[in-house]
Amino acid sequence: MTLIALLVTWILAGRIAKRIQLLEDASNRFAAGESEVVLPLQGSDEIASTGRAFEQMMWQIREKYEAINLSPDGILLVSSNKRVTYTNPALLNILGAGAKDLCGKPFSVFETLLVSILDKRAHADIKKLDRLIELPDFRVHTPEFKILRCIRKQVDSPDGQTFSEVFYLRDITHESEIDRMKSEFLTTAAHELRTPLASVMGFSELLMMNDYDQEKTRYVAETINRQSQNLKRLVDDLLDIARIEARSDGVLKLEKGNASTVVSECCELISGGDKQCELIYQPEQSAWCQIWFDANKLKQALMNILSNAYKYSQEGGVVIVDTLVQQDNQEEADWFGIRVTDQGIGMSEEQLAHVGEKFYRADDTGSIPGTGLGMALTSEIISLHNGHMDITSQLGQGTQVTLWIPSADSKVELKAHG
Amino acid sequence: MADKQKLLIVDDHETLRELLKMTLEFTEFELFEASDATEALAMVAEIHPDVIILDIMMPGEMDGVEVCRRLKANPKTAHIKIILLSAKGQTEDIRVGGEAGADAYFVKPFSPMSLLESIKVTRY
User: Fold this and answer.
1) Alpha-carbon gap, residue A96 to A89, rounded angstroms
2) Measured between CB atoms, which of A194, A210, A366 is closest to B15?
3) What predicted TM-score, i.e. pTM, was given to this entire model?
4) Chain A residues with CB inside 8 Å of B57's CB?
5) Which residues does chain A have within 8 Å of residue B35's beta carbon, measured at their own beta carbons?
6) Helix pair angle (A46-70, A2-31), 10° resolution
7) What is the pLDDT of residues A80-98, one digit of tens each?
8) How far is B75 from chain A (nearest CA, A)?
């Protein structure tokens, strides 16, 4: 009887020892970085429940690992003995090829890499990572130019004697660029508003302080009125640009048709003006195809092009409007083009490069009215239609602008459906 | 009485030149105008103005600050009173104008009457 009891105890103890061994092996192997381990999960005793808790813990760690792997921000771990133990895929994207084999290397390799890609002009005095971390952001060439932000966090070891470190790197190039463009836009917009405002404020003060005769009073009032209209146009254009860029009314009111009404309406509107320019438009000799378009927006875009052609033409100049359909075999699409050709002052290559920039004006003397926002607006409208704009120009010879919009049966999908 | 004092208006915007001319029409000044930096420098050499009202942002290679710097650096023209007039109104812009040697700096939009006041101040 005693013997049987002893035997049972011995067998049981052996089984328990084996399962505990399994648990110990698993935790050692998992700590060493293995992800597939065998755990004692059978049964309902303490060992099985420890095994299940262990499995749960492994799962949670794996979830966090996947999250780090998916992060668009770069993450690098450094062990307490100053070696890189982990880099996530985003870190390689951010730091470029130099970061490829960082894992396992001493921490100093990472430090050297960061310092070596720094923009020498912006950070000539920075030789150590400690200094770099103090910066809000820093500029690098990987060789691609980037603006990065780095955060460092210490993780104390359980005994509090040593620590490992987490380095977090974020690529903020895009948001910095957008911030810069926004503030530049606001500054320029404010400048542009100041000039007509100076006339309104100045002339009205003159009117208040002087006893002008009727003719002069009328002249001053007319000037104030004209400059107020300039101001209004600027504010309208600015709002249009803001709306279109924010895509807040980005939903185009699309209709399908050949847009011939838009073209002829614009031609009528523009030739009704007082400028002595001849407009040649022969709808019957133009090519048409079905397109998806927002009539109001397209009209706005074409009017901008037409009024530019008129503005920059001399008296007696000729503006030719025609439309064309062109096949694009590569994209299996037909493109519908509205082409406006003038024989005006034209643009140099340098001027041409600035077209579409906000507030850029080929004529800056103020003798030709305009806000410098028209082309930027037109280009936004055409891109909302999934189209593009071609401009050719020669100084003194004239300018040709073509607005291209994909035909309705082409495979080019529209960004916004009505 | 000596010859009338000469005042040169330099601005690329025609309306602004008109505004300045009307502001100054009942003063003792004989008025001249130029629409860019190159023209302004040529006028200075020709008419020897006593006062210049100078816009900063103008088309062409040279801006108003540069014109001011050149005139103040040249002993023959350093005595000319220069009033810079600009849509740029940030502290930094005003500092640059001061460093170029300008006697006064007006930000658009400006009050014609205070501009007149300032010319009287800089005259005597």
Assistant:
1) 11
2) A366
3) 0.58
4) 191
5) 365
6) 10
7) 999 999 999 999 889 888 7
8) 31
